[in-house]
Design a protein that fits this description.
It is elongated, with a radius of gyration of 31 Å. It has 13 helices and four strands. It is of the alpha+beta class and 375 residues long. Helix 8 (222-233) packs across helix 9 and helix 10 crosses helix 11 (279-315).
Length: 375
């Protein structure tokens, strides 16, 4: 009874699948689990953030261009009076007095001719004021009092060169960049792993022919390929980055082929062949699982590579189009305004850095967890 009770946990542990053991080991890696939490938070921010943000990512505030990040609401006190004067400049009235208080601005007006009550529209068009109305007007119509609410606008990360909320644009850029990375990497993973594992396992002439096809595809100009897609299918974002993945699988195929060549003569593969296991089952159960560590590490490097490639295509006018944006585009815009608005570069770059660190730590954790040599 004692020996049986002692051996039971070992039997249970030995019966665990590769994925069950990998999950147990993954949970012990604090850096990987913290990175996984960060990636989930970033993904949720990208999915739901633009819907919950105080400003639309496409909304432009011409009077708040490149304003600094602040926890205090805009406009600032020194900005209210000049904004009122600017708004009423085209109304052809004279400003007698301006009083600010209690979230309102009271403006005394006068004119050499009768004041039209519709001049409130000039104030309402401003980003600073809303709900403007004439509260008092003289009997001769040559003087009046206008009251308007002072808007409370929060720009936690400042605004860009067009006056758009940078926080909202970072949220939508997270959605676009993660979608691009997931689509392109998923396509590259699917094609590259199957193609490379098949070429390496079959070997011989089939391997030579398959790898020569890869060499031919390497020689094709990628940008020309993308331009052709745009001409034939239009600027479809999903199609564009499925196409990116359909090109990026070439490196994945070579890596998996190299791993497969080193695995196909291993004892466990020969034992499976001796037992009559089919080639597809050997690939699925033995070859591909043993290449997952390397594949996942390359996958974590491929996602940022695709994000940077997307920013290059957007610079050429072939990728993400306004008003949509991505982290690569925001970083490129921030670099242009680095001297007078450094926050435009800092926040997108910090977001990208956190994303890349999380991907790398998670990749290392998955590699350690899935490495059969360490089981």
């Amino acid at each position: 009874m004692t020996d049986l009770a002692t051996n039971t946990p070992e039997v249970a542990a030995g019966s665990r699948s590769l994925w069950a053991v990998a999950m147990i080991r993954m949970r012990r890696n604090r850096a990987a689990m913290a990175s996984l939490v960060i990636l989930i938070v970033l993904a949720l921010a990208g999915i739901f953030g633009p819907m919950l943000a105080p400003h639309s990512y496409a909304e432009v505030y011409p009077e708040f261009v490149k304003v600094d990040p602040s926890l205090e609401p805009y406009p600032q006190e020194a900005q209210i009076i000049p904004s009122a004067e600017t708004a009423l400049r085209r109304a052809r009235v004279d400003i007698e007095s301006i009083e600010v208080g209690g979230g309102e601005v009271v403006i005394g007006l006068s004119s050499s001719r009768e004041i039209d009550p519709r001049i409130t529209r000039y104030v309402d068009r401003s980003d600073v004021f809303s709900n403007a109305e004439i509260t008092e007007i003289a009997e001769d119509g040559l003087s009046a009092t206008m009251v308007a609410d002072v808007q409370q606008l929060y720009f936690l990360m400042g605004t860009d060169a067009n006056g758009r909320d940078l926080f909202s644009r970072i949220l939508i850029s997270l959605r676009i960049s993660l979608m691009i990375g997931a689509l392109a990497t998923g396509v590259a993973l699917l094609i590259g792993v199957l193609y490379g594992a098949t070429a390496g396992f079959v070997g011989g002439r089939v391997d030579n022919v398959m790898m020569r096809i890869v060499d031919i595809l390497y020689s094709l100009p990628f940008v020309f390929f993308v331009i052709l897609l745009v001409v034939f299918f239009g600027r479809n974002l999903v199609l564009m980055f499925i196409a990116v993945g359909a090109v990026e699988w070439l490196d994945m195929a070579r890596i998996v082929r190299g791993q497969t060549l080193s695995l196909r003569r291993r004892e466990f593969v020969q034992a499976a062949e001796t037992l009559g296991v089919s080639g597809w089952d050997i690939l699925r159960r033995h070859i591909i699982p043993n290449t997952l560590g390397t594949v996942i590490i390359y996958m974590t490097l491929l996602i940022p590579k695709v994000i940077l490639l997307e920013s290059f295509l957007s610079f050429l006018g072939l990728g993400v189009q306004e008003p949509l944006t991505s982290l690569g585009v925001l970083i490129a815009e921030g670099a242009k305004n680095m001297r007078n608005a450094p926050f435009m570069l800092f926040y997108p770059a910090a977001t990208m850095t956190i994303l890349l660190f999380a991907l790398n730590f998670l990749g290392d954790g998955l590699r350690d967890a899935l490495d059969p040599k360490d089981r």
